[in-house]
Design brief:
The chain has about 130 residues and is an alpha/beta fold. The chain is built from four helices and eight strands; from the N terminus they run ββββαββαβαβα.
Length: about 130
């Protein structure tokens, strides 16, 4: 397992499951500056062979996302639209709406759930070992 921390965000990568898990350390206002190192690490971890992978995000503590944060993750996820499945849980109401709008606007396989077990179950149904 590999781990990277940037600001209030931490991401773990399990190469066997091809699953990245992101969570926030305490209350967080996520920025593009903090997102860039995570996206760079994930780009290295997934490789260039186009294998499917999952992104599981725990939104507990997440208060806001700035525009550069959305741009950094949006660019990466659009580039990997065919191989990524994204599941979020513990999102506050405003962040959940933003996630749903992002899904509609990008066509990503992305879904928000109330609980972690629901998010993991959906990822497994999408073929990601979670």
């Amino acid at each position: 397992m590999s781990t990277i921390t940037s600001g209030a965000m931490e991401m773990n990568w399990d190469p066997g499951q091809r699953l990245a898990e992101v969570h926030f350390i305490g209350a967080a206002d996520a920025t593009g500056e903090e997102a860039a190192p995570l996206v760079d690490a994930l780009e290295r971890w997934i490789g260039t062979d186009g294998e499917p992978f999952g992104l599981l995000g725990n939104g507990a503590g997440l208060r806001s996302l700035d525009a550069p944060y959305r741009q950094v993750w949006g660019t990466f996820l659009r580039q990997h639209r065919e191989e990524v499945c994204v599941a979020f849980f513990n999102l506050g109401p405003a962040i959940r709406i933003a996630a749903d709008l992002f899904r509609v606007g990008t066509g990503l396989r992305l879904k928000a759930f109330a609980k972690e077990d629901e998010a993991r179950s959906w990822l497994r149904g999408m073929g990601i070992a979670a």
